[in-house]
Amino acid sequence: MKIQLPMLAAALAATFSLSAHAAPPMAANGMYTDAKGMTLYTFDKDTASGPSACSGGCAQAWPAAAADASDQPQGDWTVVSTADGGKQWAYKGKRVYTFAKDAKPGDAKGENFKDVWHTVKQ
C-alpha cells in the first residue's frame, strides 16, 4: 500500500500540472482569462496565423499571453511561436494578450482600447 500512495500522488501531481497548462478558462462574465484570472485580448492589427503586430512599447503595455512548451491546442485555442522563440496562446488563429493596466483579475480596462483591442469572448 505504501508503494501505491507515492504513485497516486505522482499521478495527481501530473494531472494538476497538466490542467494548469490547459487553454485559458472562461470567466463567469463571458470573457476568457489566463491562469491568473487576467482578461485576454486580441489586437485588430494582428492577422490570423500571422506574426504579432505588437512590438516595442506596445508589447510592454500588452504582454503576450504566454504558453508553455507543454501546452497543447484545445478547440479554438492554439499555441503559436513568438519572435523571440517563446510560445503564445491564440484564439481562433489570433494571438492573445493581457493588458498591463489591468491591475487585478476581472479588470477589462483594455476593452475597445483605441478601437483595436478587444476582450476575447466565446
TrEMBL record:
Domain of life: Bacteria
Organism: Caballeronia sordidicola (Burkholderia sordidicola)
GO terms (BP aspect): alkane catabolic process
Keyword Lipoprotein: yes
Pfam families the UniProt entry points to: Lipoprotein_15
Secretion signal span: 1-22
Keywords: Lipoprotein, Signal
Name by which UniProt lists this protein: Lipoprotein
